[in-house]
Design goal:
By secondary structure, the protein is α+β, with helices and mostly antiparallel strands. The protein has a single domain, classed as Hotdog Thioesterase (Thiol Ester Dehydrase, Chain A). Helix content is about 20%, strand content about 45%. It has three helices and six strands; from the N terminus they run ααββαββββ. A six-stranded antiparallel β-sheet has the order 1-2-4-5-6-3, covered by helices on one side. It is globular and about 45 Å long. The model has no long low-confidence stretch (mean pLDDT about 95).
Amino acid sequence: MIDARVAASFGKQSMMASLGAELVAAGDGRCIIRAPRLAQFGQQHGAAHAAVAFALGDSAAGYAALTLLPEGQEVMTAEMKINLLSPAMGEGFEALGEVVRAGRRLTIVRAEVFALDNAAHKSIAVLQGTMIGV
């Protein structure tokens, strides 16, 4: 299931388009985004740059929050923390975003980013942050 409002917003994301990302699922306080590993977003050690994990995790968490916001509102990140667990190696990446607690003004979110290699999912980053409806 993909929430129509999330799909419309995701379609306007030039950053996600640059990463070749696709919206896999979004609804009921959860969101999954996948992206291939692209050579132009690599760093000097051969892994994908940490910015890739951050962008995917931040977007997945934000869209998870959007699924619970009232119609007519959009979402923006107020703050986000990331812990990088492992180099971003693999054929692609998947970010799972979830709402921890939806308040009246602020929504607390978390995300986990995985490197995909064949059928294996390896956790490479965890994020936690705050989203605000705008």
